[in-house]
Amino acid sequence: MRTLEEHALVPINSAVATRRKGGFFISICFVSHRAAMLRGTKKTMFSHRLSDQYSLREIALGDAEELFAVCDTNRTYLRRWLPWLDRTRTPSDTCDFIQRALRQHENKQGFQAVIVVQSRIAGLVGYHRIDWENQSTSLGYWLAGEFQGRGLMTMSCRALIDHAFAALNLNRMTIACATGNTRSRAIPQRLGFTHEGTLRDAEWLYDRYVDHEVYSQLQREWQARIIAQLAAQHPAAPTMKSP
Ligand SMILES: CC(C)(COP(=O)(O)OP(=O)(O)OC[C@H]1O[C@@H](n2cnc3c(N)ncnc32)[C@H](O)[C@@H]1OP(=O)(O)O)[C@@H](O)C(=O)NCCC(=O)NCCS
């Protein structure tokens, strides 16, 4: 199994449509850039461009101060739906979190990326844990309040979903959101996830239990979605075959 480090994330728009004799084949081409990235370097920091202004890069110990400051500034807003704010009181707490995230990555058990907007950390997105036996993982995310409303998290999730299915060959991705967290729920809904159901009292949030709405996406569904998007961009295509 290849590790996260062996690949760069590949967005949907790198899927390519190719014409072949006898029909129109749409092939989804997920290209691994990692080998090229590694050439000439011993250790390359993972990074992925989402757009001209937005990018993802692997979290690093050097992010502790800034990441803590973002959490601290957004404490009240983030605390509404995230359970760890009261355990995050100093940059050293954030440093501990980053160390755990890096260890998790080293053990191929997960991955955390910071979302960067013009050199500033705007939020975090990552795989909570990877269940290799069942080829499955789940996404967690948050954005600083000022960066909401631009599609930034939807874009970031799309990139990590592409990566999970195309590079890691996982089969299932889930996103669980508190029932009242409508902005969070809008992300899997926007990305075409299936609502599987409600987990009752799934999470203790400071002073109360909240239910979780569980959404899932399967590799085959994600591929079909990409093919449908490509077909919409190439309406003249006479026939289609999945790869
Ligand atoms: C959950 C959270 C990340 C959602 O942030 P968000 O800004 O709504 O999500 P996105 O970055 O994907 O942006 C979507 C918004 O941008 C708009 N948008 C603009 N361009 C867009 C694009 N290209 N693609 C998608 N949406 C776009 C959408 O219409 C939507 O705005 P709307 O809600 O007013 O309709 C954020 O509210 C948050 O961090 N909350 C606190 C922590 C939290 O709840 N984490 C999740 C725990 S499960």
Descriptive terms for the model:
243 residues; alpha+beta; Aminopeptidase; two-stranded antiparallel ribbon; 7 helices; 10 strands; 31% helix; 31% strand; disordered N terminus; binds coenzyme A
Shape: globular
Level-1 CATH class name: Alpha Beta
Number of structural domains: 1
- In angstroms, what separates the terminal alpha carbons? 21 Å
Q: Which spans have pLDDT < 50 for at least 5 consecutive residues?
A: 1-43
Number of strands: 10
Description of the molecule:
The protein has 243 residues and is an alpha+beta fold. The protein has one domain (4-233): 3-Layer(aba) Sandwich (Aminopeptidase), CATH 3.40.630.30. It contains 7 helices and 10 strands. It has helices spanning 34-38, 64-73, 75-79, 91-106, 152-167, 182-190, 219-233, and strands at 16-20, 23-27, 47-49, 54-58, 111-117, 120-131, 136-143, 172-178, 194-205, 208-218. The strands form 2 sheets. It has an 8-stranded mixed sheet with strand order 3-4-5-6-7-8-10-9, sandwiched between helices. Strands 1-2 form a two-stranded antiparallel ribbon. The protein is globular, with a radius of gyration of 19 Å. Residues 1-43 have low confidence and may be disordered. The structure holds coenzyme A. Residues 78, 81-82, 141-143, 148-154, 177, 181, 183-184, 186-187 line the site of coenzyme A.
